[in-house]
Write a structure and sequence with these properties.
The protein has a domain of 153 residues. It starts with a strand and ends in an 8-residue tail after the last helix. The strands form 3 sheets. Strands 2-1-4-5-6-7 form a 6-stranded antiparallel beta sheet. Strands 8-12-13-3-14-15 form a 6-stranded mixed beta sheet. The relative contact order is 0.13. Helix content is 55%, strand content 17%. The protein is an alpha/beta fold. α7 packs antiparallel against α13 and α8 crosses α12.
Amino acid sequence: MLQNLNIVDLAIVKSLDLDLHEGMSVLTGETGAGKSILLTALGLALGDRADSSYIRPGSKRAEINLDFDLSDAPEARLWLQENELDDQDSCLIRRIINQDGRSRAFINNRPVTLQTLQAVSTKLVEIHGQHAHLTLLHQDAQRGFLDDAAGCRPLVEKINHIYQLWRNNKQQLQNLLQAATDQSAREEMLRYQIDELEQLDLENFNYQELSGEHDRLANLGEILSTGQSQLDVLYENEQQSVSRLLSLSIHALRDLARLAPEIGTLCDDLGAAQIQVEEAALELRRFLEAQEADPQRMDWLENQLGIIHNLARKHHVDPEQLPDLSKELHAELDGLTHSTETIAELQTTLAQLEKDYSELAERLSRQRRKFAGKMQKSITDTIQELGITQGTFLISVKPQQDSPPQANGWDKIEFLVSANPGLPPRPLGKVASGGELSRISLAIQLASSSDKKTPTMIFDEVDSGIGGGIAEIVGLKLRQLSDNRQVLCVTHLPQVAAQAHNHLFVAKTSAARATTSSVVSLTGQARTEEIARMLGGVQMTAQTLAHAQEMLTGQKHQDDPLPG
């Protein structure tokens, strides 16, 4: 269960450290006091998307910390162990939101991704929002609700995996069948394009070498002219060549070395330089002697490069990519040639996938129908307790075996209700009024939650549109849920608040420059006064205080001790 909620600089909360207890806890307070901020903080800590707008004005960052006791959460403990995030019987979750909009998440002081945080959160907390009744009008939400309550999720995931494989193979088969209609023309085009490329001798194709050889032959005159002039400079000019001048310098300096021996090493260095110059000149001479004009080779190179550039432009690739293009064209031609075999293999695969899908879809449908019967009776009983005395709730599960495979199985699932006897059941959104819809939604949530093992459940004003004796029944139902789990409920109804084991009051204070929310635990007279405030009236009279005390006293006399 959730033991502690710690918030720093989130929206209007500067600093909050709230200890939570087992059983049923309610949060009450004036509208706008900040109850929604507490739920927002929980949502952010559990993986909701975050941005810098959540940070309290003037602060650098916002931080939320949750401390869970895992003694009543074996699934969460096992998940943490499998992901090497466990820390005995506790789970510490921390979420930090920075001014640049980025956030960081930690589980037991280890950094994790948002997806990891969301994965573990589903095993710790279940949140029922105040607009859940609107979500339940959509058939996808109804299907998801039934699957969650019936424990069908693992089977749904298997079906969706097979469906994805089926869809991919189906698309591949359709592409091949479409291609087969003009296969002959395409094969002819591919062979023609491959023949064009093969005239380039692609096994020994090197565009850079061909281009470099062409540049050398095209500029042979300049190469010979410049090379010869530099050969003269280096060696062949008997009077002014580099080699001649170095020889003169060496001779003069050796004479001088008899007078200044320390320059002897300099003479050796110059001698080595002269040798290197002469070797370079010899290499240059051999290179120039090997050069000769080759008009035929030049014509062949120009023809080859012309073909290369034309083909590259035609296929919209760089010249260097022509060998890779040839491989792609060969692969496509091979695929077309063997497409008949591939089509047959795909058809066999699809038949097997459809068989596997049908078997799993039938299993899923049976599981859904079995649980739907149990669930609809429980919901019918609950909505009658909640004031729709003649109401009947039905869950329609209709298999569509004749339809092709689809996501989430082949069932069409719809929630139906008849608010009065003699009237046929109709879709939820077409029958129920706003108040009835809220009560039916609450009944659905209560019925599905009773079979779950989530250790902490949060209800955010799910009792809106309800009052009087019905509100008291809602409070009793929520209290019953807390027999084996922690229930946290945000409410405006005194009948619900009076049922709680723990009462938390959210208050807002405004100073000159800032507004701050705080939370206090109410007991004794303070709780009586809060229940009286919720009962209404401009002034708190002795009568409303007595009524509030009576509600709380009546609750204490019930045989419903605090769990644990």
